[in-house]
Amino acid sequence: MSVxxxxxxxxxxxxxxxxxxxxxxxxxxxxxxxxVGHQSLIRFAAQRTSTVAVTIFVNPTQxxxxxxLARYPRDLSGDLKKCEEAGARYVFAPRNPxxxxxxGFQTYVDPGPLAAPLCGAHRPGHFRGVxxxxxxxxxxxxxxxxxxxxxxxxxxxxxxxxxxDLDFSTEVVGCPIVRETDGLAMSSRxxxxxxxxRPRATALSLAIAAVQDGYASGVRGVASLEALARAQLExxxxxxxxxxxxxxxxxxxxxxxxxxxxxxxxxxxxxxRLIDNGPLVRAES
Length: 285
Known about the structure:
Blueprint: E1 4-6, H1 9-20, E2 25-30, H2 36-48, E3 51-56, H3 76-86, E4 90-92, H4 119-122, H5 126-141, E5 145-149, H6 153-165, E6 171-175, H7 203-216, H8 222-235, E7 239-247, E8 261-269, E9 272-279
Parallel strand pairs: 1-4, 2-3, 2-5, 3-4, 5-6
Antiparallel strand pairs: 7-8, 8-9
C-alpha cells in the first residue's frame, strides 16, 4: 500500500479519525530529512499499531534566532519513499506553517523544570516550541501511541511529562538510538558535516564509552566521569556545549553516579551542533 501525503490539518484530523476506527494509530513526529533511525521508529510503530502516521514539519517555534531553521535539510520526495519502505500509511507534511500555527496563534505549552537543564539551558525556548507542536499533533491525531528516539533523551522525558500532566491519552514510547557502524548517532544534522569533520564526530560515542569504562572500573564521582567525556571531545577539537551526568528519570544531578545515571553530551563541530547520550552501564550484548 502506497503512502498518502496529507498537506492540511483538516484532512490529517479526518484521516486519523478514520484510521482509529480500524485499530490503534501510531504517530511518528519528525522534522524530515529522514534516515535509518527514523525508519526504525516507523517500523517499530508498525509492529505495535494498525496504522502509522508520520509527520514532517520543520517547526519554527523550536529554533532560536541564530539557529539553523533556514538551512535545516529538507527532502520531501526522499522522505515519502523512506516512509513507504518502513510501513507508514500517512505522511502529514503541512503545506505551510499556518496549518499548524494559524493567524493569531498565541497559546504555547510551558515545559516546566525538566526542560531547564542541558539543551534547555543552551537553547532557550526550544522545548516550549517542541511541547507546543507535539501537543497539537497529539490533539489532531489522537493517536494511541507516539514514538520518539532516545537520542533526544531530554525531549523524550519532557514530552512524557507533558503527556501525563495534560492528560493526553497518547502513550509516549521511547525507542533505542540507532548508530552508524562507527558509533555516530544518526541525525539529520549529520548531513552538515564536511568530509574532514565526519570522522571527528565519533568523539561523542567515544566519550560515552570512556565514561562507561570509568564507571565499570569503579569511578563514581560525577565530576570525574564528566572529565573523561570532556577529554574525548577536546581531543577531537570539538567545542563543548555540555557534558553532564544526570539521573535518567528526572534529569537531576546525582550526588554520586549510579546505574540509573546517564551521560549527556552536546558539542559543536564546525557550525554543526551534535548531541548524544547513553547509560553509564553498557547494555549486555
